[in-house]
Amino acid sequence: MTAKSAAAAARATVYGYPRQGENRELKKAVEGYWKGRVTADALRQTAADLRRSTWRKLAETGVHEVPTGDFSYYDHMLDTSVMVGAVPPRHRSAVTADALDGYFAMARGTQEVAPLEMTKWFDTNYHYLVPELGPDTVFTADSAKQVAEFKEAAALGHTARPVLVGPVTYLLLAKPAPGVAADFEPLTLLDRLLPVYAEVLADLRAAGATWAQLDEPALVQDRTPAELNAVARAYRDLGGLTDRPKLLVASYFDRLGEALPVLAKAPVEGLALDFTDAAAANLDGLAAVGGLPGKRLVAGVVNGRNIWINDYEKSLATLATLLGFADRVDVAASCSLLHVPLDTAPERDIDPRILGWLAFAAQKTTEIVTLAKGLAEGTDTIAAEIAANRAALASRAASPITRDPAVRARSAAVTDADGRRSQPYTERAAAQRARLGLPLLPTTTIGSFPQTDDLRAARADLRAGRIDTAGYEERIRAEIGEVVSFQERTGLDVLVHGEPERNDMVQYFAEQLTGYLATRHGWVQSYGTRYVRPPVLAGDISRPEPMTVRWTSYAQSLTDRPVKGMLTGPVTMLAWSFVRDDQPLGDTARQVALALRDEVTDLEAAGTCVIQVDEPALRETLPLRAADRPAYLDWATEAFRLTTGAVAPGTQIHTHMCYAEFGDIVQAIDDLDADVISLEAARSHMQVATELAAHGYPREAGPGVYDIHSPRVPDAAEAASLLREGLLAIPAERLWVNPDCGLKTRGWPETKASLENLVAAARTVRAEL
User: Fold this and answer.
1) Is the pLDDT of residue 663 over 80?
2) Which long-range contacts does 726-734 make (Cβ < 8 Å, 24+ apart)?
3) CA 246 to chain centre
4) Are 295 and 327 in contact (CB under 8 A)?
């Protein structure tokens, strides 16, 4: 096919779409089911309605081929574990008794069994459930979900493409099951897994699917020769099947690199590649392998992870270059649109001029369709859209919102000395122990306490004018009083104020910093039924006035025990926002760090002697390619030290990280120079404590002993057992006792019981020392 005919054949498609619905109907239905207010049939009907609504909107916008199988009640990796029969033994009876309840037991656990481990999906803020595999794992095909959803779409008249997690990525993201040797490599199960995928593909073909998409994002990471050989074998075998749909192998989030020639040679009919940001190097990769003659190329030229409008002229130039590389070129987003909000249309609080710079999933779909039309029919057919796009881009570039000379001057004046504490850790630790007077194995929480219906109602009443500011603040004071009193009664050593005034750990600060925009309806799934509204980082950042001092000081006035000041760190403020794309990330991080530095200084001046600066996104934002990591870690750790570097030696700086793999950033954790770090560890069975010990980490650490993402209440014996495991790696004088993460998503009854057990466990183990 010539470049001209490849252009004429161009079509629009997407890899996936937000699942929640316009009013988060899925969240409400699932949580209603958990609470017994919604029946299983009603939940299934809600899910079906959402799928059909999504397909209809995509088709009406002009998408030629809609995805199926991307919808999930909780997580698509968990769905894949069900599809291949990889149900852990402890969950099998629950799955056998009731498939839906068993599914949620794997995700959330029950009082009797622990859930699957949860961690971040590559470098996004989406969390997936980690498959547990071992040498005895037996895979069995269950294609019911994939086939049923494809048939739903086909029956409605849509051209549909089932989307599956690819077999290599599935195994590379899996971990050894409990009791299996830590050096077991799940990829050794590939030959056992491929026949299951073959069976699923045959079932989809029998249902009428002409194409199936196999997502292999793990291939954009650095891969060993053995892993690349596994890729070649997998797609040789799957491509060699006769009873299957055509195969589209998709990668995203970065450049495909050394895996590109492997897939280019594979007997599959198409590849889907990311052509945004760092992944633009895929252009060079295609040229190096001689293109994809005879194959379909799906070009991800619209950024599926950020919310800024596409540059039509730049994307059309990329697409024009790609026409010579493949038999057919289609247009798509760089990845699933799961990672962006649904639609800008409901946003009424953002200046219309600024709103014109933003593209959520609905707008990105329109961009994809517009680009496909321009590619297929010529740019003259979209001349008006190109002109409007050019004007919007120019408006943003020229806006005074994006540049503040005072902020830029302050950032430029930063020196290395600004990011260093005045004394080394050993001297600081002695000063802090003398000041705080804490026991061995001090107990604390991560920061937030349950966000009750009453608290949410108070915020809604304030917004609606049903109560005034004084009435709202009285409710906040009462909640802080209850949280402090409970912690004192329970026996916690370092307290928190519970954060009742905060809607979200990033949004709360963003709303008080210049340069940020807040959305009203910009919900994005983080995990399961947990949705967040990432703010938009649109311009230069500064802090007009203190943000946390008042409520922290009020809590401290209620107790003689130390109360932690709680802040979100600069990297997390970037990672959990939609960050500006018009300057280097390191420059933006420095601006945020300086704003937070002012807050840290004010907290210390107000008498706060323990200040926690959370950086759960430090690992999440780590570039997927090793070659790109040193530059990132340099500016990321500098930003943290700049935030905390001005405090006196006797002020104890904490940080917190959760739900990521920390082993490959232990040196960066060390480089933060925090006095205490708390980390998720309960689901991973204290793995991080061992990793810290292996590194020789010299500071204090609190690997979590209470998994807060499950409704389970761990008893004191369980917490004590985890604590003893922690002591095998970290000496008692440097070990803290805390939950994995904040408690805002938990209810008060389970929170009280779990923290009482946590304190009891600490006392038990202290007595053994």
Assistant:
1) no
2) 726/681, 726/686, 726/689, 727/765, 728/689, 729/686, 729/689, 729/690, 729/692, 729/693, 730/689, 730/692, 730/693, 730/701, 730/703, 732/440, 732/441, 732/769, 733/440, 734/699, 734/700, 734/701
3) 31
4) yes
Backbone angles phi, psi at 295, to 5 degrees: -115, 165
For residues 223 and 221, what is the distance between their CA atoms, to the nearest angstrom?
Answer: 6
Coil, helix or strand at residue 743: coil
| C-alpha distance across the termini of the chain, in Å | 75
Does the structure show a pLDDT above 90 at 152?
Answer: yes
List of residues 6+ apart from 751 with CB closer than 8 A: 449, 450, 743
**Residue 695 annotated to the active site:** no
Pairing mode, if any, of strands 326-333 and 514-517? unpaired
Residue 702 has pLDDT above 60, yes or no: yes
Closest alpha carbon to 192 in 251, 146, 106, 133: 133
Taking the C-alpha atoms of residue 325 and residue 264, their distance in angstroms, rounded to an integer, is 11
Q: Which of 229, 332, 279 shows the shortest CA–CA distance to 123?
A: 279
- 611 vs 628: CA distance, rounded Å: 31
pLDDT per residue over 560-607, tens digit each?
A: 999 999 999 999 999 999 999 999 999 999 999 999 999 999 999 999
Whether residue 260 contacts residue 231, with contact meaning beta carbons closer than 8 Å, is answered with no
> If you write DSSP's letter for every residue of 547-564 in order, what string do you get?
SSHHHHHHHHHT-SS-BE
Tell me which of 91, 339, 497, 709 is the catalytic residue: 709
Distance in angstroms (rounded) separating the CA atoms of residues 708 and 696:
28
Whole-number Å distance between alpha carbons of 270 and 34 = 41
For the four alpha carbons of 522, 309, 220 and 324, in that order, the dihedral sign comes to positive
The three-class DSSP label of residue 215 is: strand
